[in-house]
Amino acid sequence: MLKLFKNINFKTPKIKKELQRLVGFINRFKDFIPNLSSRITCLTRMIRKNYIFKWSDKCRKSVEKIFYGLKKKSKLFYLDHTKLFGIFINESDTIIGGVLVQNSKLIGVFSRKLSSTQMN
């Protein structure tokens, strides 16, 4: 087991599609985040049809607390090559990130900003 999440970050969503991606990425960690559904209510509410998208300070703080909790408490487990595992990837125009899980245990995480060449 290894400690993790030294530099995971998020891009502030500007449109609903980016917000959906962020919520999807956060949901990948639902097994590691207690009370996740109540913690992201302000985010999931904005995804609804006919709801006006407006990023607020409350939403920003909610996401920051989730990411802080992941950075502080998350642990990595070693991959067992004899068992199935899942790879989940999330991307935006400027950032890419992903998670490797096995049996609801976090194996690895990556995120990085894309270079200008990669963005084209």
From TrEMBL:
Annotated Gene3D superfamilies: 3.30.70.270
Domain Reverse transcriptase/retrotransposon-derived protein RNase H-like residue range list: 55-120
Superkingdom: Eukaryota
Signal peptide bounds: none
TM region(s), chain numbering: none
Pfam families: RT_RNaseH_2 (PF17919)
Protein's name according to its UniProt entry: TF211
Species in which this protein is naturally found: Hepatospora eriocheir
